[in-house]
Amino acid sequence: MPLVDLGAAIALGLRYFTIIYLTGLGGLFSERSGIVNIGLEGMMVVGTVMGAWGTIAYGPVAGLVTGAAAGLLFSLVHALATVTFKVDHIVSGVVINVVAIGLARFLSQLFFGQATQSDPGIPDFATINIPLLSSLPLGLGQAFKGMSPVVLVAFLMTIPALFVLNRTRFGLRLRSAGENPEAASSLGVRIWPLRYAGVAISGALAGLAGAFLAIEINGLFREGQTQGLGFIALAALILGNWQPLRLMAGALLFGIAQAIPLRLQDAPVISLLPEEFIRMIPYVITIIAIAGFVGRVQPPAAAGRAYEGAAT
Amino acid sequence: MATEAATQPRIRPEWIDFLVAQLIALAGAFAFAALIGAVIVIAYGEDPLFVYRTVWAFGTSRPQDFAIVLENATPLIYSGLAVAVAFKAGLFNIGVEGQYIVGMAAAAAAAITLSGLPTVLLLPLVIVAAMTGALLWAAVPAVLKVKTGAHEVVTTIMMNGIAVSLVAWLILHPLRSDVQTTDLRTTDFPDEALVPNLATSLGIEDVIPDSIAHLTWLFPISLVVCFAVWFMMFRTRLGYEVRAVGSSPGSAEAGGVSIGGTQIKIFLISGALAGLVGLNHILGDTGYLGSNYETGLGFSGIAVAFLGRNHPAGIPLAAILFGMLLRGQDGLAILTELPIEILIILQGILILSVVVAYELVSSALARRRQAQLGQVAS
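Structure tokens for the assembled complex are given below, as produced in the milestone run.
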């Protein structure tokens, strides 16, 4: 039976992939514009609570929209602090994460009448079966049965992401703001709107991912449900060298790792470990991946640096 | 020559400008946060002045109220210091959370296995165990940062996740109480491992009953630790190197400071300080480590450190303010219809506005000094 377990693990891993990949893509736009964003986790948290609210009120599609909108609005605080007020990007990101926990409690109290969770069983999406792949033998087809349509959307997001980043004027300018804002500015490109846009995209995608987590994985909003996934997305971004396709590979690795404690706890070798140690696996894999690869990647040159404006 | 010097514009000593700027920034940030808070409170149809008065009254009206405030502040002073010392070297220890959880488990293990020793031996050993456990937990991200460049923000967060599972396992298996208990927890610690209550030691438990406030000697000790951190930061070679690495790694290295070595040292010190965060909870209050132990103290420490300007004198003040807001939640729950989370929001707005206000004021200050120096030069 282990192969059926593997199929189920991949199925769940693809759902976690969706969260990590969408959030990582958001982080990619923010960091390629020059704004380091470790507030992704907090933006995702706001997405979970507002996504759950939107879903309960108007259904899962609306939930994704409200989650993304809430993430976007919240991310503007980070943009305001880092771009306009030139606060250190990591300091602002840390504060964003601390504030998000309180904000989520507050909103949860407001909308669900309790601070730490919504009622369970919020409506989710109708699932789909991927033709051909879902009839793979040995139980592996399990991986592609009952898939959330949003997972497919996440994979397809790669195309517009690559197109915008590499084939549009906006993408070129965004990247120039992250590589050499002084040079870009001397050519007449205004830096701050690009950086605001980069951060806003990251907030919207992190919020969307948070809503997906609430709707399609947990079926409710619960305090602490993001469990560091925003930081794992950041790790995938580093592992992916700030490139969408490599980011996708990293997100797949971390996504499947997330599913190990939940679906492969009875697999050979793993089952020898106590349950609590199995739960450490995704974190350990993330640390090893980051420590092993980080020296070989190249972050955007101006990421983390405030743009001081044209010299007078 | 002398007359020429006399006509130069006078420049105030830098530290006065600095202090005034800090105070202006703080006042501005507080006013802004209070204003936003008032808008939220009014939106709920309550009176903001009454809300702020209630928070103040619940923290200050009786000695025992203020004792609760100080009890709340105690762990936050330690976690604020832990965050601040790392920050001074340009490092972000987001892992205080995991480090103090591991520290509590190490303290529990020491208290239980060394049971039988007298207080003078056992209590210091338990405290050292907590600091060592947390220090080892901080060593992993510190070494990875220096050896491989893995960013400490990502690795410490992952270490937090691992700590939660590890301590859950420790409480469930090796440290589990042999006695049947309703909740999942360790054996009760021997009395010799507990930190004495401050009011009881001073003979004023009729004013501050120890059943109400668990204010222990760990509070005055935290102030001593603040002084020790100040001394280390501003009066020792290590502190100088830490500040050099934090403010300008390039010049520090050119001056012969080993960046990696300094970062590892300060991160380990940060971890050791983190080990003290959970002690008031288990050694001053519960007397055992339960699976429902207090969480979030490490993250609050980040907020305390930022609010206290990462300075050992500012951190206790920021921690006491947070202790008061925490105590004020009880007041809001009893006397108003407001959700108590309003104070958490207020806390967040306050930190954000403080960070922005300091940034604005210090860049204004830099511009002014530049202008003054320019005047002097011309």
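Chain A touches chain B through 44 residues (CB under 8 Å). Residues 91 and 124 of chain A are 36 Å apart (CA to CA). Further analysis is deferred to the final report.
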